[in-house]
Amino acid sequence: MSDYSSLAFYYDRLTENVDYEKRADYVLALMKRHEAPAGGRVLDAGCGTGTLTVLLAKRGLDMMGFDKSPEMLSAAAQKAAREELEIPLIQGDLREMDLYGSMTNVISSLDTFNHITSAAGLNKAFSRVSLFTQKGGLFIFDVNTVYKSRRVLAGNTFVYDLDDLYCVWTCEGRRCGLVNDISIDIFVKEGDGYRRYSDELVERSYPLAQLEQLLTDNGFTVEGVYSDLKFTSPGRRDERVWFVCRKN
Fold first, then answer.
1. Claim: this prediction has a pTM higher than 0.85
2. Topology annotation, domain 148-203
């Protein structure tokens, strides 16, 4: 898993195309549709810079954030402070997650679990989520699909030009395109020149059946699998899907 050390400071600029308000609406709609237990605390696992965490807190959920990157959590803390929200933020690896109490529900968005690149590691992460989710609580998360990994990411380069910020995102596929080594070069304008920052990530996609089996093995019942931001079953060309699981 990457900790986004160099990318964290520029992450929000580079994800301005993500409609977080719509994602917050969708998470709340999934919780309502599947009758999530009310009250208690909701964990945002892999909260990043905390944009979704803060939005859900502003909409009345008692949120907590967890992320591997201290830089990301620093940005999340600043956002919460600006909104005068008290949101506990914990730094750590999801495969070894340790909290000081159980969560009523757990959410995760923007392919957090794709950054865990072995089935054994993903099993550990799901085990920790299960351990800290109360019985009857929901675990809602999204993942990038095998189709996206093979057909959209692998072998391609993506360029983001934001005037004073230029980013080149290169993906090299391996293991039949299931795993992508991602190189990120960010060029930030300083005076008459640019300063370069680099980071490296690895993402892996998993067949939906494998994900469902790992979730079942860790005490969850999968209640729904949906196309991104929809309430329909995913198709073979979907790039992102959502799982809604209930702790047994």
1. yes
2. N-terminal domain of TfIIb (2.20.25)
What is the distance between the alpha carbons of residues 242 and 10, in angstroms, rounded to a whole number?
A: 26
Burial of 223 (0-12, 13-18, 19+ CB in 10 A): middle
Residue for token pair 């237990």: 37
Match domain 8-144+206-247 to its CATH number in 3.40.640.10, 3.40.50.150, 3.40.50.1820, 3.80.10.10.
3.40.50.150
Mean pLDDT, residues 52-66 taken together: 98
User: Are 234 and 225 within 8 A, CB to CB?
Assistant: yes
Which tens digit of pLDDT belongs to each residue from 68-115? 999 999 999 999 999 999 999 999 999 999 998 999 999 999 999 999
Q: Which two tokens stand for residue 93?
A: 């690896």
